[in-house]
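Quick check before the chapter quiz. The format below is the same one you will see on the exam, so make sure you can read both the input and the output lines.
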Amino acid sequence: MDELVRAEILSMSREAHRLTESAYQQDSSTRGESGWSEKQRVLLADMALHLLQTALSSGELSKDDLKRNLFSILMVSDQFMPGQRLKAAAEALHAC
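Here is the expected output.
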């Protein structure tokens, strides 16, 4: 990937990440409340942005960061895909 393109994507992702984290922090919903699912979707978007930043960071891809990103995405996604055993997959990934 062209370094200018990579830098631009990372710059845009930092702004998206800032906005996403702000939206998450401003949402006071807790588990069981009507807004909880939406708050978890924002959290999932935040985790996806972390994955994007890990994937496009300079140098060697950090396996530890990638593992952490995937673990978080699987754990949050589990509630949106019941019966798919995403939490079990996340725990198996974490055990490696």
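If your answer matched, good. The mean pLDDT is 96.
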